[in-house]
């Protein structure tokens, strides 16, 4: 195992809001130089400005994980800015509501492309170098839908099942290389994901969650809670591998 360097540049995708933005700020606050990637470059710049205001180091580059050329350009720009990347947080994702037999194949495929193939493109860009250096961390942000399917989220569910399958295979393939592949599996989290849904579709989806016992209480996780779990994974000392961390919102304390 290679000695861990004091400076560990980290990449965070989907860093324009939610879990990605919180993760970038959490890692920067603990000394990681961070590279923020997303399509909404202006939002990433706002996050980077907050990091700079607190004395952290951050750079921003546009990233579209559905475009191989964009991923390659991002990886090169980040390396030029920060040096060798030691940590990759694969967080970018999108979910759209719909019934399996009604969603057209192109829409279904587009969601798989971003949520699953996009993660693989990120792996291809950064992990070979990690294996060569015999060190590094890759963290995949999954979802509880990977083990508890939710109605009207079929493409997202299929993508997260596939993402975890890929990550578990990587864990075996990377054993002995010094590179750790980990999964964070959040439950319902307060973020912008779903904010673009039609109100009727959104309401139907929530009602179905209640019907099938998938909304036992109304609490959601703050994105910072998931960011804290990610930080714990990458801060684990060499020789320790947090393979899978599931983070769920605690129910409100009931009055008796």
From TrEMBL:
UniProt xrefs under InterPro entries: NAD(P)-bd_dom_sf (IPR036291), Sc_DH/Rdtase_CS (IPR020904), SDR_fam (IPR002347)
Name assigned to this protein: SDR family oxidoreductase
Sorted UniProt keywords: Oxidoreductase
Membrane spanning residue stretches: none
PANTHER family assigned: DEHYDROGENASE/REDUCTASE SDR FAMILY MEMBER 7B (PTHR44196), DEHYDROGENASE_REDUCTASE SDR FAMILY MEMBER 7B (PTHR44196:SF1)
Family statement drawn from the similarity comment of this UniProt entry: Belongs to the short-chain dehydrogenases/reductases (SDR) family.
Keyword Ribosomal protein belongs to the record: no
Highest taxon of the lineage: Bacteria
Record-linked Gene3D superfamilies: NAD(P)-binding Rossmann-like Domain (3.40.50.720)
Organism expressing this protein natively: Spongisporangium articulatum
Pfam families with a match to the protein in the record: adh_short
Regions annotated as coiled coil: none
Keyword Oxidoreductase annotated: yes
